[in-house]
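Here's my example:
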Amino acid sequence: MNRFYQPDIATTLTLDEDESRHAVKVLRLTAGDLIEVVDGQGMCYRMRITLAHPKRCGVEVVESVATPTHWGHQIVLAVAPTKHIDRLEWAVEKCTEMGIDRLIPLHGHNSERTVVKTERLQRVMVAAMKQSLGATLPQCDEMTPVMRVIETPFDGQRFIAYCDAMLPREQRKVLAREYKAGSDVQVLIGPEGDFSPEEVEAALQAGFTPVTLGESRLRTETAAVMAIATIHTVDQLIVDSL
């Protein structure tokens, strides 16, 4: 069944112009056809089209189902945008498909990109949410300084991944071994130039656990995907063992 996103669908019973055009012009749906609409807050509605208008497609509720996230805890990814934005968008798409609750684009000392259009990232997230049959849209923050994220309290496990050879590798631990399944978690992934020594030191002082994602040096976008995949894998291993 075709899935659409409309945050205020429960009150308006109308798809916005973009979704209406897709439903009526692209998919050629007509009155009486059934669709699914999610509100990004965890609700999924099975709906019947009542007005197949390409600018304001009207619908009625057939069934509503609360659809909580399958991981059941907070997963926050803070990642420095890549120089080539398409690589960041790829990572955001994959991490949204796997499941995150919040994305924080980071601006650090070695960042090569200082501006990011959150509206563009949100569109990627919406598409990924629908593709993965999710009903909860991750929060997407504006670009935030690394130090501000480090200094902001977070009630859960906090990890910082870095690879600079000048920083003490022996202090870093393996994320898959340190993450406790089911815990609220925040992971910081640095820019292509890595975190600065001062940023790493500030994170350690704030209680972050320094981690490695393996022996290979990963690109920023690969590291972000690897970190989220690791968290979900550890969660699933615990579920499977019960």
Summary: The longest helix spans residues 220-241. The longest strand covers residues 43-51.
